[in-house]
Amino acid sequence: MTRISLLLACTAVSSALIAGPVLAQAAPAENGRANAPNQKPAFANQTRAPQPATTAKIATEVVAEDLPHLWAMEFLPDGRMLVTAKQGAMHIISEEGDAGPAIEGVPKVASGGQGGLLDVALAPDYATSGMIFFSFSEPRDGGNGTSVASAKLVPDDRGGGRLENVSTIFRQMPTYDGNKHFGSRLVFGPNDELYVTVGERSDSKPRVQAQDLGSGLGKVFRIDRTGKPLADNPFAGTKGARPEIWSLGHRNMQAATLDGQGRLWTVEHGPKGGDELNRPQAGKNYGWPQVTYGVEYSGKAVGDGITQKAETEQPVYYWDPVIGPSGMAFYGSDAIPEWKGAFLVGGLVSRGVVVLHMDGDKVAHEERVSLDARVRDVKVGPDGAVYAVTETRGGASTIIRLTKA
């Protein structure tokens, strides 16, 4: 019997049950003091949406532990997991929950601060091509930056493997000598387009470039498999603009996924009290750092302290206090029917999975599933279970499986 099978058999005994009580009142999941109490949402349920009247009972079990400090995971067609480790290694996790030998051929990464080997995505035709794409903070002359590479993954019979034909297809420019806000998530769209989310490098000098179409800081990019901008991108014909830009005015996006209609959604780290859920659309400006909810970490206003401007988009939802978003999945399975159609967001600060129940393109309810651990990534498995990658700062990672009890 495999380790995962044994854990499943023992769920009734060993699982932590997270009960969902019937709530007398639809109170919000967040009841902490806001960092910017004088800021008001632009519309109902833009923040602190009520919890659902009833919530599913969720069972949790550990399926892999004592792993390197992970950043992302993806399911391979055979059910094993491909994971990236912040320090620069890539591993395949067996059905028994063990990490195989480090995969050979991964390029060098700048792993200081928030940098490292970041997201990984399988090509839509991975089953026949074996192609994967991954993002990483790349060491460069004069500093570093977020880059995207493609490669063919060739597993071996030892549980490891190698990367062949590694090619860096895209580089976020300009290069900057810093160690914060690299992003990044990779999402393939329904027409084989690749969305790349990045950060604006955090510091006061570079972050203003989130508003600059000539800069790749604080943007969502839309490229093809070779790294080239798509011809119908919104700024493809704009003089001085980077043609790969899809949307602008973002801070640090470490969560992204497609919804059931194949549309891109993101959650980005905001300032103190300003994490945002957005549906980035072609050519639109999401405000940072000119327009934002929340305040600087010092408590001072960000810029002029405004939360609305005609030229910028409102977030679909925001959090104050923050959840520290990282990793995101759309739940389309029937295995946990209460979650069907919801977004699942990892919380580094809220230490669990945030469940956003949608009504059209608005948040109707927010639910929190506590895991008492920083959640770095969230994926829906082929079995309909939810898999959360947790981390300790500078330490090991664990993969936790969430199912309906």
Which features does this protein show?
single chain; 405 residues; mainly beta; Neuraminidase; 5-stranded antiparallel sheet; 4-stranded antiparallel sheet; globular; disordered N terminus
What report would you give on this structure?
The protein contains 4 helices and 24 strands. It has a domain at 68-249: TolB, C-terminal domain (Neuraminidase). The strands form 6 sheets. The chain has a 5-stranded antiparallel sheet with strand order 1-2-24-23-22, with helices on one face. The protein is globular and about 60 Å long. The chain has helices spanning 3-9, 11-14, 126-129, 204-207, and strands at 16-18, 58-67, 70-75, 81-85, 90-93, 117-122, 131-140, 143-155, 161-171, 186-188, 194-197, 219-223, 245-248, 252-258, 264-269, 275-278, 317-319, 325-330, 343-347, 352-359, 362-370, 374-380, 386-391, 397-404. It starts with a helix and ends with a strand. The longest helix has 7 residues, at 3-9. With 405 residues, the protein is mainly beta.
